[in-house]
Amino acid sequence: MTLTIHLFAHARELVGANRVAVDVPPGATVADVRAALAASFPVLASLLANSAIAVNHDFADATSILHENDEIAVIPPVSGG
Amino acid sequence: MFRLTTDAIDYHALTEAVRHPHCGAVALFLGTVRDLTGEEVTVFLDYEAYPPMAEKKLAEIEAEVRRRWPVQEVAMVHRLGRLGVGEVSVAVAVSCPHRAAAFDACRYAIDTLKELVPIWKKENAPDGDSQWIHGEGAK
């Protein structure tokens, strides 16, 4: 399945796009998507290792299973305030 | 109540919005843009958010503040876009019957906002260089 991954802040600047697509098998987890992102966008790999992944506006752990219409985002270390 | 805005934060209005006859204490925190981080000079900051998730996290913070302390009202506003040195980037106002809870609740709200809310700032130096600040937040 093709998943859309939203990119913010430093992640967006590194890749040069505010969203990208990755192809993963059905039943793929957040960990699988991290690996797919790092493989497709090597420039993102280092930041990705320090970033969270959000699914449908919540922080997700590595084992969360993803679905086609999930809203997925790379969340670099936040620095609000 | 909470809001993301690109407008200058009216912290006087925010303080007035939380004041209440039941409350003997109002605590207000302002985050302001600083000119120096170590030796790095900042001329302006760019703030960016992931709005739907930021609002969800702010709602969760408000709920937790209300669960833990006898809060009458809590208001959090974060500004986005380009801010110059000295400008107010974030305001948190809390009203409680007594001051201990007001101070603690306000502290918790801003500390947790800085840890969990998907907002990012980019520092811009006088020479045109810029860097995204990576906080100690959730990973």
Q: List the helices and strands of chain B in order.
A: EHEEEEHEEEHEE
Counting helices, strands and paired strands, the structural category of chain B is: alpha+beta
Percent range for β-strand residues of chain B: 35-45%
Roughly what percent helix of chain B? 25-40%
What is the radius of gyration of chain B computed over CA atoms, rounded to a whole number of angstroms?
A: 16 Å
How many E strands of chain B? 10
**Integer-rounded radius of gyration of chain A:** 12 Å
- Roughly how many Å apart are the termini of chain A? 37 Å
- Spatial strand order of the main sheet of chain A: 2-1-5-3-4
Largest inter-chain contact set = A-B, 20 and 31 residues
Task: Estimate the global geometry of chain A from the Cα principal axes.
Answer: globular
Oligomer: heterodimer
Question: Into which percentage range does the β-strand content of chain A fall?
Answer: 25-35%
Give structural attributes.
heterodimer, A: 81 residues, alpha+beta, five-stranded mixed sheet, 28% helix, 27% strand, globular, B: 139 residues, four-stranded mixed sheet, four-stranded antiparallel sheet, 3 helices, 32% helix, elongated
Task: Summarize the helices and strands and which ones pair or pack.
The complex is a heterodimer of chains A (81) and B (139).
Chain A: E1 2-7, H1 9-15, E2 19-23, H2 30-40, H3 45-49, E3 52-55, E4 58-60, E5 72-75
Parallel strand pairs in A: 1-5
Antiparallel strand pairs in A: 1-2, 3-4, 3-5
Chain B: E1 2-5, H1 11-18, E2 25-32, E3 36-37, E4 40-41, E5 44-49, H2 51-68, E6 73-79, E7 81-84, E8 88-96, H3 99-116, E9 119-124, E10 130-132
Parallel strand pairs in B: 1-6
Antiparallel strand pairs in B: 2-8, 3-4, 5-7, 5-9, 6-8, 9-10
Helix pairs in contact in B: 2-3
